[in-house]
Amino acid sequence: MKTKALINRLSDGALHSGASLATELGVSRTAVWKQVHRAQEKGYPIETLRGQGYRLTEEVDLLDAERIRYRLDKALVERLELVVLETVDSTNAEIVRRRSRAQDGYRSLMVCLADAQTAGRGRRGKVWQSPPGENLYLSFGLTLPGGFSALDGLSLVVGSAVAEALETLGLEDVQLKWPNDIMHKGSKLAGILIELQGELEGAAQVVAGIGLNVHMQHASGVDQAWTSLARIAGGGHGWRRNTIAVHLVEAVIAAVDQFSASGFADFQTQWQARDMFFGEELKAVQGELQGIGCGIDATGNYLIQTINGTETIRAGEISMRVAT
Ligand code: BTN
Question: Are 131 and 45 in contact (CB under 8 A)?
Fold first, then answer.
């Protein structure tokens, strides 16, 4: 029995006896008990009432592959290999594994979502907190023409697409922090991790992972200001991960298609409109560079006005923050 089947049964918030769950799920009461323990260990909020049964103490917003597939643009579904998992180490790693296993057999476009990650990867070797049922963890396996050198700007393209999708869903004041973060009022709402796979020459195999905080209200060990959709909306908005996933998948793939066809220049204006650093006094985290944020150039490099003139910073070279 899968955790998902159990959570689905409990999702009405009512109290379910072990016996009724066993009958409904076609397993023994011991199997139900074990599954409840496993689900509790994974972090699902199940309360055990001695002699009475089990119930969810909070609503759980489960991912549902069929619902996502059904609501995606039909032409897109044809092009796409969509995988929705309960738990995985990292959706980025899963894309790499599936592509290596399938060799030439895979579709060039792959999307993997998971309810939880046990080893979610952030940038610079950091851990990405990935509790079950809370946030969105999704990765895109992309094949882009022109080799790795043509990839400058991809994370900005993905960031713009995420921001647009969130605005379509009604979120205001979304900002972008060069090169990879989606922010809201100075706190990080989502991050992007681009990883390269394959050869330096020919079409580039890329994995673009997005972690978006949706319901999360508490997290330990995060070393920067963060927020979530639920925190922003005071928990009352009723965000649904399946709906957000559909919007993100469509927006990211449309943006990547446009980027593949025409390059980064088309995205310069829309990215810059959400630039968190624009006009701010900035400081490169490693290095001496200090100056005023001036936005990006036509390839996605960041421009800083320093006392010695305009300096160009390539994505991945250094990170920046607002000078304090
Ligand atoms: C960052 O540090 O800001 C990047 C975070 C990227 C997290 C996402 S969650 C889905 C995908 N799988 C991973 O292991 N990481 C990315």
Answer: no
Instruction: Identify the three-state secondary structure at position 303.
Output: strand
Residue 179 CB–ligand 1 contact under 6 Å? no
Cβ atoms of 223 and 231 within 8 Å: the answer is no
Average pLDDT over residues 205-226: 90
Q: Ligand 1 in contact with 274 (CB < 6 A)? A: no
C-alpha angle with apex 72: 69 to 75, nearest 5 degrees? 105
State the number of CA atoms in the 13 A half-sphere of 256 facing the CB.
28
Between the CA of 22 and the centroid of ligand 1 the distance, in Å, is 37
Minimal-distance CA residue to ligand 1 atom 10: 137
Rounded Cα distance between 179 and 157, Å, is 10
Please choose, from the candidates 309, 318, 284, 311, the residue with its C-alpha nearest in 3D space to the C-alpha of residue 297: 311
pLDDT for 264-320, tens place per residue?
999 999 999 999 999 999 987 666 788 999 999 998 999 999 999 999 988 655 555
Q: Whose CA is nearest to atom 11 of ligand 1?
A: 209
> Which residues are designated catalytic?
123, 188, 321
pTM of the model: 0.88
CA distance 174 to 189: 9
The phi and psi torsions of 141 (rounded to 5 degrees) equal -95, 115
